[in-house]
Amino acid sequence: MYKAIVFAGTTEGYELCRFLAEHQVQVLGCVATEYGTKSLSESSFLHVQGKRLSEEEMEALFEMERPEIVLDATHPYAAEVTENIRRACEKNRISYIRVLREESSHQKAVYVENTEEAAEFLKTTEGNVLLTTGSKELKLFTGVPDFQKRLFARVLSLPSVIDTCRELGFEGRNLIAMQGPFSEEMNAAMLKQYDCRYLVTKDSGKAGGFLEKIQAAVSCGVTPVIIGRPLNEQGITLADACSVLAEKFQFSMKPQVTLLGIGMGSRDTMTVQGKTAVENADLIIGAKRMADAVRLPHQDVFYEYRSQEIADYIHSHPQYRKVVIALSGDVGFYSGAKKLLELLGEDTQVICGISSVVYFMAKIGLSWDDAKIVSAHGKSCNLVSLIRSNKKVFAILGTPEGTAELARKLTFYGMGDVLLYVGENLSYDNEKIFVKKASELTEYQGDALSVICAYNETAVEEAATHGLPDEEFIRGKAPMTKTEVRTVSMGKLKLKKDSVCYDVGAGTGSVSVEMALCATEGRVYAIEKKEDALDLIRQNKEKFALDHMEVISGTAPEALEGLPAPTHAFIGGSSGNLKEIIHVLLEKNRNVRMVINCITLETVSEAMECIRQLKAEDENTAWETDIVQLSVSRSKSIGRYHMMMGENPIYVITIQAAS
């Protein structure tokens, strides 16, 4: 006994059969032909019957099976079949639902009252036309411009008919003399053979092979021009039918959600797997540009890019069975897929796409396996420093001014000869790809949908560890933290790539430079009060191309006001304000990690007093404190001998509230 019987033969019918079987509802799928049976795979819950049924045979089937519901998902133009199913259900008092496809570009037909109107319509079109209305009214179509090339007339294979057609100007390959009936496959073959965009037919019903013509037109993406009145059926959509069935058979509907990387935006860069997912979807979600790039005319769309809003919408609209979320490029390349997977669950399907880096690097003929790949779209990534130390850097920009801003910075830092490969609107009709030196692009106004690949032939590879030689820095009379002390101090700071760092009393900026080279994705603020030292810091900033390092003129703690909260702070000079500086740092971030260099015993005493006060003020906080004393000696050549010359001893003090 089947709980449901579905009259299929359309995509909607096949989907209903699978939907019921997936939810363990016994269903019989009825299709008219053996070809239709191949579109469904039988299972323990789905049986497929391939046979045309008369009204009497339908009545007998319903009486024997006594289904709880019958769903009519036959073709919209199968009017006689639909009426037979309806009457058979009424006689057996079985619930009947007509399932209709929503309007789509493949289904839209042009309806005209008569042959004259059909001919007038074709005068406004372009492309080839298959005429299947016979020879009697063929003369009316001779008024269509260029009809002897555009129009292909299919007529009976009688000598008198052929002679008449020849007299009208239809001959050679534009005259098809054949005897019907014509199957859907035969009609489709002709439409493809003659590259037709339109098919003209009369609404002749079952006997005239009308349904086979319409089905062929739909499968080939051809617009039917129908002489007769349009059908005026009432029914519900596939999505609504699924909701009705879920309620009737008491099962919950959980949609199949697919995160789809759509490539650059053009359908040509979407994978075959991705196109199939889109074709099977009943809801497309994504930012407008991306959703519109893939959606089909009949599909519902929800324009949204925020992850939480997408998840909430899917949850509140259970009528959708198959949802595709369109994401630009590849789902694993600076994509919103990561957050969506957290919200939607592990059973979410993920389909990869072609990322912009793969597409663009192929276009410009460069490999990307040795490139540094980053995104500057809505985030800081310190492109200048990356380009200084990497031969190839690929970056997503995301603003019209992005290329010019980068070019100006590169030129300022002495890298105006770096080649910038620029790509805009990748894969679209207005795609633009070119290469110029950075110095030539300082005023360039581009497109927001842009990427670049910076090619720096003279890139300087950075050391893997901190501890630059003192000779690397531009020096003056300002004090400088020496290599050995700098190395230990940097080790105590424990910086991360995205750290926000203060260098208080920066001197020549040697520690600031080391900080910036480590915190490549963060920010560094070099605070100094002396003008000669400030000038040295700026020179060192420019030498090492540290665009994410900012020089602050002033005395701490006043100079710290307005700066973002630090994660790390190095105090090399306090001007007697150590206690106040520590207090301000902790106000900005209670967990800031501080490293203090002390030369005098008085400064050591002041630092120890600060630690004691911190512990006394907050007994519930555990404080990490560490004191290291360094005595460094360097060799000096005296004739053929080497003498060790001692530097001033340094105390390196670390303070941080334990998290």
CA-to-CA gap between the ends?
66 Å
Low-confidence stretches: none
Helix content: 25-40%
Q: Main sheet, how many strands, which sense, barrel?
A: 7 strands, mixed
Structural commentary:
The protein is built from 22 helices and 30 strands. The chain has 659 residues and is α/β, with parallel strands linked by helices. Strand 25, helix 21 and strand 26 form a beta-alpha-beta unit. Helix 3 packs parallel to helix 4. It starts with a strand and ends with a strand.
What is this entry, summarized?
With 659 residues, the protein is of the alpha/beta class. Helix 1 (11-22) runs parallel beside helix 10 and helix 8 crosses helix 9.
Write the layout of secondary structure elements.
Blueprint: E1 4-7, H1 11-22, E2 27-31, H2 34-37, E3 46-50, H3 55-65, E4 69-72, H4 79-92, E5 95-98, E6 110-112, H5 115-122, E7 128-131, H6 147-150, E8 151-155, H7 159-168, E9 175-177, H8 184-193, E10 196-202, H9 210-220, E11 223-227, H10 238-248, E12 256-261, H11 272-280, E13 283-286, H12 288-294, E14 300-303, H13 307-316, E15 322-327, H14 337-344, E16 349-351, H15 356-364, E17 372-375, H16 383-389, E18 392-396, H17 402-412, E19 419-424, E20 432-437, E21 450-455, H18 483-493, E22 500-504, H19 510-518, E23 523-528, H20 531-543, E24 549-553, E25 568-571, H21 578-588, E26 593-598, H22 601-617, E27 623-630, E28 633-638, E29 641-646, E30 650-657
Parallel strand pairs: 1-2, 1-4, 2-3, 4-5, 6-11, 7-8, 7-10, 8-9, 10-11, 12-15, 12-16, 13-14, 13-15, 17-18, 22-23, 22-25, 23-24, 25-26
Antiparallel strand pairs: 18-21, 19-20, 19-21, 26-30, 27-30, 28-29
Helix pairs in contact: 1-10, 3-4, 8-9, 13-14
